[in-house]
Write a structure and sequence with these properties.
The complex is a heterodimer of chains A (255) and B (402).
Chain A: H1 2-15, H2 17-23, H3 34-37, H4 44-53, E1 55-62, H5 73-76, H6 78-89, E2 94-101, H7 107-121, E3 125-129, H8 132-137, H9 141-157, E4 161-165, H10 180-193, E5 196-198, H11 200-210, H12 223-243, H13 246-254
Parallel strand pairs in A: 1-2, 1-3, 3-4, 4-5
Helix pairs in contact in A: 1-2, 6-12, 7-9, 9-10
Chain B: H1 2-15, H2 26-42, H3 62-85, H4 87-122, H5 141-149, H6 160-169, H7 171-180, H8 182-199, H9 215-235, H10 237-241, H11 243-264, H12 274-280, H13 290-306, H14 320-327, H15 329-349, H16 354-384
Helix pairs in contact in B: 1-3, 2-3, 2-14, 2-15, 3-4, 3-9, 4-6, 4-7, 4-15, 6-9, 7-8, 7-9, 8-9, 11-13, 14-16, 15-16
Classes of the chains: A alpha/beta (255), B mainly alpha (402).
């Protein structure tokens, strides 16, 4: 029985290569409803880079929740996982993800360093995780909006596409740390500036509600945190592939 | 003592022309009760029942209703006291009320601290290393508690009562002005609102930032409520009866609803023209955005038009629960804040799905109603008890509490 089903599966996989990515063994199924990963906005610069040069330079800017604690935290955090996932799904392309992560860094302080980062990395896509440090520091929402808006404008002026990533869903701290106002601002700015929003808040809440992860659980161990970051990396990769229409690019390169 | 008597005479002579509307307006209790329920629901984040609260259908939310009605009832109750007993007595009562609210706020803060301390001692997860920084303030209880006592440190969802306290602290002179020169008082309030917008007035918060509800801005709604209670509503009758006003109000409500839809259904966002977005956003809650204020006015205009003061349903059993809650607003508000903490705790603990969320919301409202009934019953037996002193006409007897 096992043999037959394995046979059927392998035939199916060879006939439909698109399924291969889905059917590959995954440490955890952490599917995300398609609605989270669809986007009205195109990552045009990334599309061009992939088409013309088969490369994608991504800069991730973030605060503490873009990293994992521990000595090898960076290896398991979502920026590294994003690079893995993209390399897996876009074979043959050169993928570079550079992470600029600094705990407690507010959006205003990111903006002050932004031109330096952009000049160094020359990215075609910037993933900007923001909002948590601002909420923690009680930065005024007007100030947050102004900083984020000017930052997005700077990145776009430098010729890169922007993905804004909002906060983590954190049920234990929700009663102390209200991030909703900051999340709303990020959504508005993404809409107005033509940036893609990666709704980490919504996705993680979906995982929590669906039982994929128990985000309320207390633990000192790293394994769940790592799995969550891996899943975020994958979801982010899918969103980039969708919004930059890299499925089409990939097919052209393999043909 | 003579100087204390003078204002009383002055008041009596000036206000004879504009008698306050007699009797209790149950609509105020009803809508304040409903606002309290909505505030409770909104305070449980990620709650399915949130979708039923008015903030998802327009610019303003339950806070506007609550503050307006609070201003209205405060003027109704303390305005009468000021006319009958003079400035000093009325002011003393207003300040006593502010004190009660302060004590209630500190009580809620204690519960909040207990919850935080519990979370801090039991919760650990490397995934949330950054978010856990919010617990840092526990390392400095001396500073935190002092800042809470002077109303600078206000945990999430505990911003409304400090606003209310500030509004009441400055209410006695404003009430006097409202009685003597209502138009002047309203204009002064609007001026403060405009100045607050232009000069960025607000009160500082701890550890940084400013008050979530800017008292210099929100006082406009409170004073407007008070102005309505002191005869302003009657002056507006002609305006409110005009079909043009009704049409404008309805058009604005529909517009506001359409804009709100685009926040939740992303593809609709492109139908908001860029110039409109640039002009309209941000719709600022902290400083009571004009769009929010206008939305509340439109809601009020439509409500007053279709729900008359003698609406038979107001006396029916169906609306009784909301009215009861509205009549004991301070207690029920505090209870609501507490229940929102507790409900959120339960929802998170059980990773509650939509069903649990709906159930928690329902149970919360039932507890609020039961408590309001209990308080009513207490007041009743207190009033009937042989030892019960004959009370002066105060907050409980007039139009619901201020």
């Amino acid at each position: 029985m096992k043999l037959i089903s394995a046979l059927v599966a392998s035939i199916a996989l060879s006939c439909f290569p698109a399924w291969a990515a889905v059917a590959e063994p995954q440490p955890e199924t952490c599917d995300v409803p398609a609605s989270f990963l669809e986007s009205e906005i195109d990552l045009g610069r990334a599309t061009v880079e992939m088409k013309d040069r088969h490369r994608l330079d991504i800069t991730v800017i973030g605060s503490g929740s873009s990293a994992l604690p521990g000595p090898d935290g960076a290896r398991f955090a979502y920026p590294a996982q994003l690079e893995n996932a993209l390399k897996q799904q876009l074979p043959g392309a050169e993928i570079n993800v550079t992470a600029h992560v600094q705990p407690k860094r507010t959006t205003a302080s990111v903006v002050s360093e932004l031109s330096k980062i952009l000049a160094e990395d020359k990215p075609s896509l910037v993933v900007w995780q923001a909002g948590t440090a601002d909420a923690l520091n009680g930065v005024e929402t007007d100030e947050f909006r102004a900083s984020l808006d000017s930052g997005v404008e700077m990145i776009q002026a430098a010729g890169a596409d922007v993905i804004l990533m909002n906060m983590q869903y954190s049920p234990r701290t929700a009663s102390m740390l209200d991030v909703s106002a900051y999340a709303d601002i990020m959504r508005h700015i993404a809409q107005q500036r033509g940036a893609v929003l990666f709704d980490r808040l919504g996705i993680m809440q979906y995982w929590n509600d669906a039982g994929t992860f128990d985000l309320y659980a207390a633990t000192k161990k790293y394994d769940m945190a790592r799995r969550v970051h891996e899943c975020i990396g994958r979801a982010l990769a899918s969103q980039i592939i969708n919004a930059a229409h890299l499925d089409a690019v990939r097919m052209q390169t393999t043909r | 003592m003579k100087h204390l008597v003078i204002p009383k005479f002055a008041l009596a002579s000036r206000t004879a022309a504009a008698p306050p509307p007699g009797g209790r307006d149950l609509r105020l209790d009803l809508f304040r009760g409903v606002a309290l329920w909505l505030i409770f629901l909104d305070h449980i984040p990620q709650n399915i029942a949130n979708w039923f609260t008015i903030r998802n259908y327009g610019f303003s939310d339950a806070t506007e209703i609550f503050i307006f009605i609070s201003g209205y009832t405060a003027a109704f109750v303390y305005g009468r006291a000021m006319r009958e007993r003079g400035f000093l007595v009325a002011s003393a009562r207003v300040l006593r009320r502010a004190w009660q609210i302060y004590v209630a706020h500190i009580f809620l803060f204690t519960i909040f601290m207990a919850e935080i301390a519990y979370v801090a001692s039991t919760f650990d997860n490397p995934l949330y290393a950054e978010e856990m920084n919010i617990l840092d303030f526990l390392k400095q209880p001396d500073v935190t508690i002092f800042q809470a006592l002077i109303l600078k440190f206000k945990p999430v969802n505990m911003d409304v009562l400090p606003l209310y306290i500030m509004l009441l602290l400055f209410f006695p002179p404003m009430l006097w002005l409202l009685i003597v020169e209502p138009a002047f008082a309203l204009a002064g309030s609007a001026l403060v609102y405009v100045l607050a917008w232009n000069l960025n007035w607000n009160l500082p918060a701890y550890p940084n930032g400013v008050w979530f509800f800017n008292p210099f801005a929100w006082q406009l709604l409170f004073v407007f409520g008070a102005w309505c209670a002191l005869g302003g509503a009657q002056r507006l009758t002609a305006v409110l009866r005009s079909p043009v006003v009704l049409a404008i109000a309805i058009i604005y409500l529909v517009f506001s609803f359409a804009v709100t839809l685009t926040w939740y259904i992303e593809p609709l966002g492109r139908f908001v023209p860029v110039w409109l977005g640039e002009w309209m956003y941000p719709i600022d809650k902290t400083n009571l955005d004009v769009l929010r204020f206008a939305h509340f006015l439109a809601l009020a205009a439509v409500t007053v038009r279709f729900i008359p003061r003698d609406w038979p349903l107001l006396k029916s059993l169906y609306l009784r629960p909301a009215i009861l809650c509205g009549q004991h607003s301070l207690e029920i508000f505090c209870l609501g804040v507490f229940l929102a903490f507790a409900g959120q705790f339960v929802i998170s603990e059980w990773s509650g799905g939509p069903l649990i969320q709906a159930l928690i919301s329902l149970i919360g409202i039932l507890i609020m109603v039961a408590t309001a009934s209990l308080i009513s019953w207490y007041k009743q037996i207190e009033g009937r008890s042989p030892a019960g002193r004959s009370k002066p006409p105060d907050a409980d007897l007039a139009g619901g509490e201020a």
